[in-house]
Amino acid sequence: MATGTDRPWGLRESYLFDRHVIAEIQRAAREGIYDIRGFGAKRHVPHFDDLLFLGASVSRYPLEGYRERCGTDVVLGTRFAKKPLALDIPVTIAGMSFGALSAPAKEALGRGASEVGTSTTTGDGGMTPEEREHSETLVYQLLPSRYGMNPDDLRKADAIEVVVGQGAKPGGGGMLLGHKISDRVAEMRDLPQGIDQRSASRHPDWTGPDDLEIKIQELREITDWEKPVFVKVGATRTYYDVQLAVKAGADVVVVDGMQGGTAATQDVFIEHVGIPTLPATRLAVDALEELGMHRQVQLVVSGGIRSGADVAKALALGADACSVGTAALIALGDNSPELDDEYRKLGSAAGFYDDYQAGLDPAGISTQDDELAARFDPELGGRRLANFLRVLTLEAQTLARACGKSHVHNLEPEDLVALTLEAAAMARVPLAGTDWIPGSNGAA
Amino acid sequence: MTAVAAREAAVEVVDLESSTLRELNQRLHDLTREPGPTGWRVLNPNGAHAVACGIDAEAEVEIEGHVGYYCAGMNKRATVLVRGNAGPGLAENMISGLVLVQGNASQSAGASGRGGLLVIQGDASSRCGISMKGIDIVVGGSVGHMCAFMAQTGRLVVCGDALDALGDSIYEARLYVRGSVAGLGADCVEKELRPEHLDELAALLARAGVAAAPADFRRYGSARQLYNFHVDHAGSY
Question: What digits encode the pLDDT tens for the residues B188-203?
């Protein structure tokens, strides 16, 4: 029988039916249910990698890399709150729930963020004492499920984030599968142990932007107008969502692109709903500028932020800060090569592991199993996360200095060019080597 | 001075035509940290939103008129009486205490409430008790559609009728309805009204000050068939 190696042209894999597609069809036929997984979108979409900085030249001069200061501080919530958040770096930790993550992992996120002077965020499931204790600045999420929501924790928080949606699943609710529901998680969520915990896709007591304005007023009244109120949206109709969030009274708008992570969502949702972070950033800034609210309402961008280059490019497009989730988990130890053997026992491998929903994480991060969670050292994890956040900041400063900026917020679209037509159109910066911005200057 | 007159004199009166909502709520919140009047009367609410929300004190607040959204939101320990109608999100996420509305309540009354007693002497609109997490709600009249949607724990008593999709995707909350039910939501079924339920219902009605016979009610709750996703139930979602 002929094999691929017998033929000089080899075996030809179908573009449409590649090995992953075939495997998914076979899995669906076998199991009769859609694939639920964690992580974020894995498909290729235009991203910050498709942009480049121009750097200094004859007409621009750079700052000395190790001698001249390049500021990184940011203040979030300056519009209405009595106590805005003053952060040392423009990178925060995105909302991730206790339930999806183990208690030691949540503690590590707080430790790491606090070490470098930034904030971390609760998630669906409420605030744990460990998280509050180890987070110098903690943002408390108000989600549709209202799991764990109470006024005491609301007052303990440093800011409130009204979650309308997230990038991995705009328009979708959540699901914490029963095998991750420990006694403690069940108690915090007021549900029996071991059952699937669904999180609603809509808030129970408001619908639409007019209601949201009144809801924000209530939250401000309950907390005596002290806390900044963030509104988080998954990136879809970003231009309108941002304007409506501002109109509703948000101090800060968080825009989460489709590459944003999740603990458990249908693969079809992760890969096929929402728009990438790159165009969402541009649309959000457009919306704020049109309202005359750019820099008055701060913009936090998340969804696939991995490096200081991503941070610097998002800031150059007009964001005030970025938020990291998946990258933070990787910094803690997720997908570590040292655990490759154990990932393989679960049918995965280091670098590919995305079964956060299963609760079997050998790294002890996305689990509620006490033995697995005990493997994770929150102090070490916190130090690793702090290191990672420092590197993001140093990289962003390096790029800003190269562009002659004494603060990372002085980066601007004029510092950027695009490598692809798509990125040029989405970010609205010129295609490299041209002055062409497709769709903007009449040349397209 | 008689005892009644003395009590009246001790009541702090706040007129929202001359004071701001912020001033009222701040004074009520200050009770958590420092002693102050326990009796409060709020005049001219005129449909204001977020009236008396976020209280954490043994205060008694009487509101003379209609209120807008989120009256007594996240209430803790206080007694809040509304002599009028209430807008959406009445006593949302209430923790403890008593909230009593003499008129009707708009949608999402008692949403995600975790404790305490909410009494609506008139009717309640749609989504009453949505996502409830331990609160007790007694409605003297009827309720709209989708009430007790995803209700987790706590009890909802409806002395009148309930519209469509009562208890859709309900968890462990217990629902009692005296009148007709237009339709039950996914995984919500009628259950036997056993003696312990009659006792529970009698106590709830007594606390709410509602004269009704427990035996006239029917009980509804979760069939627990959708607690763990199974593809065979896909048509139920």
Answer: 999 999 999 999 999 9
Q: A196 and B152 in contact by Cβ < 8 A?
A: no
Alpha-carbon distances of A338 from A104, A341, A344, A351, B45, rounded to whole Å: 19, 8, 12, 11, 64
The CATH code for residues A38-411 is 3.20.20.70
Using the Cβ of A223 and the Cβ atoms of chain B, whether some distance falls under 8 Å is answered with yes
Is A145 at the interface with chain B, CB within 8 A?
A: yes
- Where does B3-211 sit in CATH, by number? 2.160.20.60
Looking at residue A182, what is its pLDDT? 83
* B111 has a chain A CB within 8 A of its CB: yes
User: What is the predicted pLDDT for the residue at B97?
Assistant: 98
A chain contacts of residue B228, beta-carbon cutoff 8 Å: 178, 194-196
Q: List chain A domain ranges.
A: 4-37, 38-411
Q: Which residues of B touch A31 (CB under 8 A)?
A: 231
- CA atoms of A107 and A90, how far apart (whole Å): 21
Q: B129-149 pLDDT, tens per residue?
A: 999 999 999 999 999 999 999
Q: Do A33 and B231 touch (CB under 8 A)?
A: yes
Q: What is the mean pLDDT of residues B159-187?
A: 97
* A30 contacts: CB under 8 Å, gap ≥ 6: none
- Between chains, do A150 and B74 touch, taking CB under 8 Å as contact? yes
User: What's the pLDDT band for A185 if we cut at 50, 70, 90?
Assistant: confident
Phi/psi of residue A198, each to 5°?
-85, 140
